[in-house]
Write a structure and sequence with these properties.
alpha+beta, NADH Oxidase, binds flavin mononucleotide
Length: 198
Amino acid sequence: MEIVQPLPEPQIDLEFPLMKALEKRRTIRKWRDTPLSHQDISNLLWAACGITKQATGKSKSKRTAPSACNSQEVRVYLILKQGVFAYDEGEHKLIAKSSKDLRAFVGTQKMMQSAPLGLVFVADLSRMTARIFKNEEAQRFCAWVDTGYISQNVYLYCAAANLGTAALGWVNRDKLHQEMELLDHEKIVLTQVVGYLN
Ligand SMILES: Cc1cc2nc3c(=O)[nH]c(=O)nc-3n(C[C@H](O)[C@H](O)[C@H](O)COP(=O)(O)O)c2cc1C
């Protein structure tokens, strides 16, 4: 049975000037160890790749981040002290995957392991079915680019909401993949840590 964790509605009417967010965007490597509130998690995930246009009979939904052929192949996972959750952007809810605390695997640097929240961007290559994806290299190329947009959305939301964040490429992907019990076609591209500023 799927265990669902509801999220509060994202506060999409919050205002913050885009140019200021771009100016303030920064990689921060220090946080308070306070857990993020449910509201902040909701806003953060919606900013990352939430739905901005519902699917209609003819066309698929759209998200805050673009994706090649609108494949929407990048799934965001949350790594919290209380476990691993997948973000279901269609329903704006969390799906519990395990109760393991995997924060120690989000990044290889010691300081990253103290962050209250980790995001893992996982490309599900099986969702990339358009003809332009001739082989896995083509899928990977687009999935890696698509992840960059999501990560930047997280950076910009954090700048606006006064949160500290760092994208992490320095990750033991094989170990994290194994700990998260992902499938072969689910590839970890990048992780990102988030926390309240000191
Ligand atoms: C793809 C990618 C991977 C990164 N990996 C790491 C990392 O593993 N550890 C880290 O401390 N910073 C990492 N960073 C952050 C960069 O070091 C940082 O963006 C860069 O120094 C520029 O600083 P700024 O983001 O504040 O402009 C990464 C950034 C990107 C875009």
